[in-house]
Amino acid sequence: MTTIGFIGLGNMGMPMAVNLRKAGHEIKAFDTSPAVLDQAAGHGMKAQTSVSSAIEGAHFVVSMLPSGKHVLDVMVANDKLAYAQDCVVIDCSTIDIASCATFHRTLSQRGIRTLDAPVSGGVGGAAAGTLTFMVGGSDEAFAQARPILQAMGKNIIHAGDAGAGQAAKICNNMITGISMVAVSEALNLARRLGLDLQKFFDIASTSSGQCWSLTSYSPEPGLVATSPSNRGYEGGFASELMLKDLRLAEQAAMSSNAPALLGAAAASLYAMHCQAGKGRLDFSSIIQMLNAR
Ligand code: NAD
């Protein structure tokens, strides 16, 4: 049996850890939220009271934390953490390029194999075990971790060396953030033009407007059964996390001199949305801001 230390069991981490448990692995779960730890125990995981006990004796450590600061604070800053020999540390969080480089460099200096393996597919993909993993790191670490990632995802892509997974993720989420604003603007306009929104959805989802933000994650309730819009925008991918990702894309675009005008506009809209107190709502709730104007 493989022992996996899992750190950060929120909207994404919990269903991912549940799938690892279902695959027969022993899960040592750590989260700062006691309610989350109770839930983990209910799923047959071993709830831990510290990062160090979650890591102790683990063949793999998987983290799913909010940001780069969390990843560095939890797994890198403490040089007393006793990772097992041959342990592979897989960070699945979406984090900035600089923190990702520090994560790889510091742990590899301590002789630990590391992968950055951010995901796409949302909470639905995490629950269904159909996530796409974009992985950065050595061939050896990737080969070792692949069966673990396959228990949580459908598409496991080795993007390149350390950091390549995060680079791919930032670019992907720039598309998602921009396209969610585009879909929200179009649905809002369609309503104001007196269109039946179901009919407009049927047309756009089979026309050139078709995209994931429309057909898999519609911001308008009643069009796609699994969308967070049907649950009052609770759960899902928080607007504050989308803002974080769009800011990461802006930073990366500036440092590589790449034009990213729509990315910057989407970031400004999400910043206004978060300032209005909607940061914890799913990012598709951006449509509320447009509808209200
Ligand atoms: P979340 O806020 O629901 O979960 C984060 C979890 O980390 C929480 O349970 C929190 O208690 C825990 N945590 C925070 N600090 C901690 C610490 N110091 N030690 C241990 N646990 C700690 O966030 P999420 O939606 O699950 O997202 C997690 C990561 O996945 C983010 O980087 C996000 O960008 C990325 N992501 C999210 C989605 C999505 O649809 N939600 C999709 C793809 C990627």
Instruction: Give the helix level as a range of percent.
Output: 40-55%
Number of helices: 13
**Extended strand count:** 9
**What's the CATH class label of the largest domain?**
Alpha Beta
* CATH-defined architecture of the largest domain: 3-Layer(aba) Sandwich
Give the overall pLDDT as a whole number: 97
Low-confidence stretches: none
Count of structural domains? 2
Task: Write down the Rg.
Answer: 19 Å
Structural class: alpha/beta
> For the record, what is the CATH homologous superfamily label of the largest domain?
NAD(P)-binding Rossmann-like Domain
Word description of this protein:
The chain is of the alpha/beta class. The protein folds into two domains: 158 residues, 3-Layer(aba) Sandwich (Rossmann fold); 125 residues, N-(1-d-carboxylethyl)-l-norvaline Dehydrogenase, domain 2 (Orthogonal Bundle). Helix content is 51%, strand content 14%. The protein has a six-stranded parallel sheet with strand order 3-2-1-4-5-6, with helices on both faces. Helix 4 links the parallel strand 4 and strand 5. Helix 1 packs parallel to helix 6 and helix 4 packs parallel to helix 5. The radius of gyration is 19 Å and the shape is globular. Nicotinamide-adenine-dinucleotide (NAD) binds next to helix 4 and helix 6. This is 3-hydroxyisobutyrate dehydrogenase. It catalyses: 3-hydroxy-2-methylpropanoate + NAD(+) = 2-methyl-3-oxopropanoate + NADH + H(+).
